[in-house]
Structure to design on (95 residues):
């Protein structure tokens, strides 16, 4: 679990990033989960764009659960996800 200070730090780091995946009308599919999982392994911190979700908070939480990542923030229709790299972490979190 991330603290609020850590989530705030990660949201600041995510600000200049572009979304690496888009969730369309089909919702969270196996392909989306696989793509987000690979992106999280490569980058640790990513943005995912939700296109016209019915319930964006529930969809963001479901995506975080499916990818075993932490939900750092939800800005508009953009979800910020973080998953620490198991071997070589790139991002140093504040204590």
């Amino acid at each position: 679990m991330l603290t609020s200070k850590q989530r705030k730090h990660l949201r600041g780091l995510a600000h200049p990033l572009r979304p690496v995946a888009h969730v369309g009308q089909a919702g969270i599919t196996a392909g989306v989960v696989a793509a987000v999982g690979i992106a999280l392994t490569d980058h640790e911190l990513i943005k995912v764009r939700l296109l016209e979700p019915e319930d964006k908070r529930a969809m963001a939480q479901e995506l975080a659960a499916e990818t075993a990542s932490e939900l750092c923030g939800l800005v508009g229709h953009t979800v910020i996800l973080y998953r620490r790299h198991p071997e070589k972490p790139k991002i140093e979190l504040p204590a």
